[in-house]
From TrEMBL:
Stated name of the protein: YigZ family protein
PROSITE patterns the record matches: UPF0029 (PS00910)
Domain Impact N-terminal: 19-124
UniProt cross-references to SUPFAM superfamilies, sorted A to Z: EF-G C-terminal domain-like, Ribosomal protein S5 domain 2-like
InterPro entries (alphabetical): EFG_III/V, Impact, Impact_N, Impact_N_sf, Impact_YigZ-like, Ribosomal_Su5_D2-typ_SF, UPF0029_Impact_C, UPF0029_Impact_CS
Entry's family note: Belongs to the IMPACT family.
Organism from which the protein derives: Limosilactobacillus urinaemulieris
Length: 213
């Protein structure tokens, strides 16, 4: 079974104060390199007086694009810990920018790594997670005599009805996960003794709240 495709539920920011330094992590959903860079530029502009605006992002269905930057912090103490926080949460299509306002007390390499990692992780928790699922619309044409039974069957299987059109027959459109279309189509045909017709329509991206075990 493939891993769920997870991303953040909403764009958000979270602030921590560690030894008088302010760490503000801003996270956002993005679907391209350009969008990630625009968000980084936006946060950096809004925090132009900050000591550092470090970042990391992952874009693509297989995380084909991965970037990180320490933005002046010692090498490997900021960008990589932020990126690893995204990876540990199994996130995709997400950018995180951690803004630091220096408070006068040096943290050392280990302290910086923990600070940037924790800042990103806490922002991810605040944003929440969703699973993105590709769903197809199945257009079912059924007789009025079978309509109530169909609705009952769909409710039993927790299938969302997208729309219904009433004419000489009833056309009921439903959402089904793309990887379950073939199996569910077969179930419907068998259950209703081939007395309905099913046509596959367009697809959509559906978001399901995700809670890690």
């Amino acid at each position: 079974m493939s891993e769920p495709f997870l991303t953040i539920a909403k764009n958000t920011s979270n602030e921590m104060v560690i030894k008088k330094s302010r760490f503000i992590c801003s996270v956002a959903r993005v679907t391209s390199d350009e969008a990630a860079q625009q968000f980084i530029d936006q946060v950096s502009t809004e925090n132009r007086k900050a000591t550092h605006n470090c970042y990391a992002y992952m874009v693509g269905d297989r995380d084909q694009i991965q970037r990180e930057s320490d933005n002046g912090e010692p090498s490997g103490t900021a960008g990589v810990p932020i990126l690893e926080s995204l990876q540990l949460a199994n996130l995709h299509n997400v950018v995180a920018v951690v803004t630091r306002y220096f408070g006068g007390i040096k943290l050392g390499a280990g302290g910086l790594i923990r600070a940037y990692s924790n800042s990103a992780t806490n922002a991810i928790h605040k944003a929440g997670l969703v699973q993105l699922v590709t769903q197809a619309i199945l257009e079912i044409t059924v007789s009025y005599a079978q309509h109530d039974s169909l609705l009952h069957y769909l409710k039993e299987h927790q299938i969302e009805v997208a729309d219904e059109q009433f004419g000489a027959t009833v056309q009921t459109s439903i959402y089904v996960d793309e990887d379950k279309v073939a199996a569910f189509t077969k179930l419907l045909i068998n259950r209703f003794n081939d007395q309905l017709t099913i046509k596959k329509g367009t697809s959509r991206e559906h978001e399901i709240p995700y809670f890690a075990n």
